[in-house]
Amino acid sequence: MAAGVLSSTGNGRARTWARIGIVVQFLALLRILAQYLWLEAHSAAAFTAASGHPWVVGALLTATLALATVLLYFGGRFRAAAAVAGLTVAVLLVYRFVVPGVASAAPVGPEAPRGAATADTTPASRSVALTFDDLPWADAEVPLDSVAERTRRMLAVLRAHGAPGVAFVIGRRVLADGDAGRRLDLLRAWRDAGVELGNHTWSHLSFQNTPLDRYEDDVLRGDAVPRLLMGEVGKTPHFFRPPFNQTGRTRVARDAFAAFLAERGYALAPFTVEDVDYAFDDLYRAAGGDTASQARIGRTYLAHFDTAMAFGERLSRETFGREIPQVLLLHADDLNALYLGRLLAHLEARGYRFVSLKTALADSAYATPDGYVGRYGISWLHRWRKGLGLPSRLREEPDPPAWVLQDYQALHRK
After folding, report:
1. pLDDT tens-digit series, residues 311-332
2. Sign of the C-alpha dihedral, residues 77, 83, 86, 87?
3. Which residues of 147-170 are buried (b: 16+ CB within 10 A; e: fewer)?
């Protein structure tokens, strides 16, 4: 008798859990279906990517388990139905946290509707915006006369190629000592060459290691120099680039800082391609008068630059179904003073035309949500993929040759 009561009670609980499981499965399938239909209607690239992705495997597995649960339930096998429902929940949790995009129906970023005209992927359609960090010069120890000569060389290259750009200023490096007037004149030369001046903070602090209020104060202090110099020609600075491209280690910090920038009329300057030029520059300068080593470093730098551009192009096509305008991050440094002409020639050979940052950011891809929160300054192409729920390609980002990384690390251990 007691065994019968216990059995009846157990079946009753199993039936309840099976019912709950069926409801959860049904809601999960509706959510997955809604996301898939949204992708199909609004994002051809993401829809194409999803069709060969574990996302679909998860959806099919969930549907199979849901069907099994229903059949077991109506067959009176309530405990088995409850167990299968529990397995379904486990599958959904795995795909929610291990394979982004299955259990969430987050909106996908903007893309041209299917059937609308999109940019061609042939080289003739390519465009790139040039950006330069760490003005007046990346290495603050370089004598000012040398900085002036190398700046003239870089600006001559930009003029020869008709290339606009944005250059991001570290305020403290401009106003540090009695040569502030000469440094301001160097920045005026950038501005007069058609390069907009942007804010790169006052002292190049790391957002990861700095309280939000102190970091915002550093941004406000950094505003003074670009605002002064752009104001001389009736303009205002529009762009801010965070040091190390760190946008916030937590979602709260990231969102609060984004609101802070918007209130002050600043747009965050993203990038889609960077070529680790700072590492090559350090090695080039460390080589001193060793012309053979410097030539090898220069050749490797150009080869890696092409590899980085090719990766950005491929990731753009994979993410958006087309090549978007790229934003290239470079530094104002010794190596680029020597190689900028060859870099721009390589870009032209790849079919690129040079556009302003404002023009590049007008492309709808740049309105895609940034899904990344963390300590690293990764490319916006990776951030957008996370926001779109697409597979990460961060581990595929090309590194320079091993010897470059090893020599760079050894140099900084000294």
Report:
1. 999 999 999 999 999 999 999 9
2. negative
3. bbebbeebbebbeebebbbbbbbb
For residue 172, which of 217, 128, 127 has the smallest C-alpha distance?
217
- Cβ contacts of 107 within 8 Å, gap of 6 or more: 38, 369
Q: Tell me how crowded residue 17 is: count the other CB atoms within 10 A of its CB.
A: 17
Q: Pick from 105, 111, 140, 131: which is nearest to 31 by CA?
A: 105
HSE-CB for 182 with a 13 A CA cutoff: 13
CB of 352 closer than 8 Å to CB of 155: no
* pLDDT tens digits for range 127-139: 999 999 999 999 9
Q: Which residues are CB-contacts of 344 (< 8 A; sequence separation ≥ 6)?
A: 157, 161, 163, 354
pLDDT at 333: 96
Q: What type of residue is 44? A: A
Q: What is the pLDDT of residues 18-35, one digit of tens each?
A: 678 677 767 776 666 555
Average confidence (pLDDT) over 276-290: 94
pLDDT of residue 78: 72
Helix (H, G, I), strand (E, B) or coil at 130: strand
Alpha carbon separation from 118 to 256, 267, 304, 320, 324 (Å, rounded): 34, 25, 29, 10, 10
CA 119 to chain centre: 21
Beta-bridge mates of residue 273: 328
- The rounded distance, in Å, linking the Cα atoms of 296 and 148 is 26
> Cβ neighbours of residue 157 under 8 Å, at least 6 residues apart?
163, 340, 341, 344
For residues 308-326, one letter each, b for 16 or more C-beta atoms within 10 angstroms of the residue's C-beta and e for the rest, the string is: bbebbbebbebbbbbbbbb
